[in-house]
Specification:
286 residues; mainly alpha; two-stranded antiparallel ribbon; 10 helices; 4 strands
Length: 286
């Protein structure tokens, strides 16, 4: 636990400048690119960890295009946002193009390439890349963006923390032992309750400090949903590791593992927050 806490503190200190200079400042201003660049780095390392996990990091026909997409997509999200262009439309087109490309690689490497691993690589890598790009889109929402992009990080970490402690204190029933033997139903419920309470508290803080009124019913219900999705994101990556007999995706973060081990919950939540806020804004911006 001590190592995890120290790593978390150092990680926050490293990420803080990227968060502090996260504002879009116009395409001609270099600060504009600091935040998406940081996310691009996280996306790049995360997809490498996944490729290394399934043994396809040396298959350059698959890995190189994925690495390029990991770097380019978060940057494109910021650039197209500044141009008032539709990044979502481009993302769908890119996903379809890459799907065709992956199918072509499967055909030309037939008998040498495991189709299941190729499919898993496509699914997880573009989920990861799209999720990190979602942080940029959330940050670029007018006015409320400064509060929205922090939600996936804060709420997922609250869920993880309180699920752990509630599980330790009250856990009796295993959640999905085949995937994660230590997680319990009681821990999952505790994480969801505290995430909803955190959502309410987060709204109070934003309102008091910045004068932006939250949509409390949407925010609280979203807190419950976010907690569920956060735990699914965690379990999904645990399932991938179990399938490939790995404890962690990497060792770059002592006590945590790799970037995917640390951000597995947050990237799942980022997609959900983006979807919710698109149709039911979490904050009332006049």
């Amino acid at each position: 636990m001590k190592v995890r806490v120290i790593t978390a503190i150092v990680g926050i200190a490293v990420l803080f400048p990227f968060f502090w200079f996260s504002d879009p400042m116009g395409l001609s201003h270099p600060i504009t690119y600091i935040f998406p660049f940081g996310l691009a780095v996280l996306a790049l390392f995360s997809v490498w960890e996944l490729l290394h996990c399934v043994g396809l990091d040396k298959n350059y026909a698959l890995s190189v295009p994925v690495y390029l997409a990991a770097v380019v997509c978060p940057m494109l999200a910021r650039v197209l946002g500044e141009l008032n262009a539709d990044f979502a439309k481009l993302a769908v087109i890119l996903a379809l193009v890459f799907a065709v490309y992956f199918l072509a690689v499967i055909v030309f490497q037939f008998g040498k390439l495991d189709m299941g691993k190729a499919a898993l690589t496509f699914l997880v890598c573009f989920y990861v890349i799209g999720s990190f790009s979602s942080f940029v889109i959330l940050r670029d929402v007018p006015v409320a963006g400064r509060f929205l992009f922090l939600i996936p990080l804060i709420f997922s970490w609250v869920t993880d923390t309180f699920a752990y402690f509630c599980g330790r204190l009250f856990g009796k029933h295993k959640l999905i032992p085949a995937v994660s033997p230590k997680k319990t139903v009681e821990g999952a419920v505790g994480g969801a309750i505290f995430c909803a309470l955190t959502a309410f508290a987060y709204g109070l803080v934003v309102n008091a400090c910045f004068g932006v009124a939250p949509n409390y019913p949407t925010l609280i219900v979203s807190g419950l949903l976010i907690s569920v999705v956060s735990q699914i994101g965690d379990l999904a990556m645990s399932a991938v590791k179990r399938e490939h007999d790995l404890k962690d995706f990497g060792k770059i973060l002592p006590g945590h593992g790799g970037f995917l081990d640390r951000f597995d919950s947050s990237i799942a939540v980022a997609v959900v927050v983006l979807a919710i806020n698109t149709y039911l804004p979490l904050f009332q911006v006049v």
